[in-house]
Amino acid sequence: MDLLNTLVDKGLRRETPTRGEALAVLATSDDDLLDVVAAAGKVRRHWFGRRVKLNYLVNLKSGLCPEDCSYCSQRLGSKADILKYTWLKPDQASQAAAAGLAGGAKRVCLVASGRGPTDRDVDRVSDTIKAIKERHEDVEVCACLGLLSDGQAERLREAGADAYNHNLNTSESTYGDITSTHTYADRVDTVRKAHAAGLSACSGLIAGMGETDEDLVDVVFSLRELDPDSVPVNFLIPFEGTPLAKEWNLTPQRCLRILAMVRFVCPDAEVRIAGGREVHLRTMQPLALHLANSIFLGDYLTSEGQAGKADLEMIADAGFEVEGAGEVTLPEHRAGGGCGSHEGSGACGPATAEPVGSASEEPRTDLVAVRRRGAGTDLAPNA
Fold first, then answer.
1. By the number of CB atoms within 10 A of the CB, which of 8, 88, 115, 263 ranks highest?
2. Are 48 and 67 in contact (CB under 8 A)?
């Protein structure tokens, strides 16, 4: 297929696909799906070999969020039956992180619900970062605390944070349809603040919220302009009790097309399969490793993930290897200047395929399991 050959050549040169090429990938048929995966896999292997980076989430504060993001189980007015607790103490968070690191994770992602941190919250998270790094010197720490005020990114960097995550989630034109309590511009501003402070910027999207292919292509190019080092691709988990509970728009094939698009558009960026892979990729998860070079280990913020042991077995069975703590994730031209460094024409972001699967396909609501273990509980995590 001429399209795929062109995209492979562009990916190896770090040249951004055109908008038309992005949409064309999303329009490929199921008959061409393995060809699409194989082509995007060539680009993935060129820049990242067969390494898979493991990341581990620690939910520092669960639920009770004043924002109204429609996709989120922690949102204002959510009736989802999730764990709710206030800030973990630094030693509790450090213990939670240790479980993921013992399972092979090299990055810990510290997440807190809310609009954004107060200065006191930044102090609290700074203490947590220091506690984790005292026990695990080589660990990467990414903070995800919402919208940042002036100077807060610098303080997190001084405390030892390596990265900051704040997703764009969807296109600017449709952002108001999913959230009314803050704007798309607010999110862009926070990613820029993180990048300017010397933190490695992490920003991605959520697919499956009812958006169009054009919306997702818009996110691709918006992310490309922001130039994050890592691009998490979330697949909507339709929690009962949230406004998007009925949005079961994804099939495993569509998810693979989305990930292939991300790889073609972000050839040399860390592409991470994030929330929802177990729910929507299901038994096709091993194929997704040919597209993404990073995954979350174990559970997510409010939902259960695949057991850590199963993640490790899947990686090995698929012919990949876990990236070691001493290995640099990003290619030299991106990592050589430190966190957030990137020169040239790389790009970041995803897209989606044809609308929903067949009308006869029943939503797999049985695959959404609320997290009841790990951080904020007395039960062991599943890392």
1. 263
2. no
Kindly provide the residue ranges of all beta strands, DSSP E only, lying in 107-245, ordered along the sequence.
107-112, 140-144, 163-165, 200-202, 205-207, 230-235
Q: From the candidates 144, 202, 266, 339, give the one annotated as an active-site residue.
A: 202
Give the DSSP H/E element, type plus range, for residue 51: strand 51-61
Catalytic residue among 44, 72, 257, 334: 72
The reply to whether 144 belongs to the active site is no
SS3 state of residue 319: coil
C-alpha 248 chain-centroid distance: 19
Q: Is residue 266 among the annotated active site residues? A: no
Spatial separation of the C-alpha atoms in residues 188 and 1, rounded to whole Å: 36
69 is catalytic: yes
The predicted model scores a pTM of 0.88
Active-site annotation holder among 69, 255, 266, 339: 69
Residue 143 β-bridge partners? 110, 164
Q: Give me 245's structure tokens.
A: 């509970």
Cα(182)–Cα(122) distance, integer angstroms: 20
Q: Crossing angle of helices 184-196/213-226, nearest 10°?
A: 30
Of 107, 272, 334, 371, which residue is the catalytic one? 272
Active-site residue, 339 included: no
Q: What is the pLDDT along the chain (383 residues), one digit of tens a residue?
A: 799 999 999 999 999 999 999 999 999 999 999 999 999 999 999 999 999 999 999 999 999 899 999 999 999 988 899 999 999 999 999 999 999 999 999 999 999 999 999 999 999 999 999 999 999 999 999 999 999 999 999 999 999 999 999 999 999 999 999 999 999 999 999 999 999 999 999 999 999 999 999 998 889 888 988 999 999 999 999 999 999 999 999 999 999 999 999 999 989 999 999 999 999 999 999 999 999 999 999 999 999 999 999 999 999 999 999 999 899 999 999 875 433 343 433 333 333 333 333 334 677 777 788 888 888 888 888 88
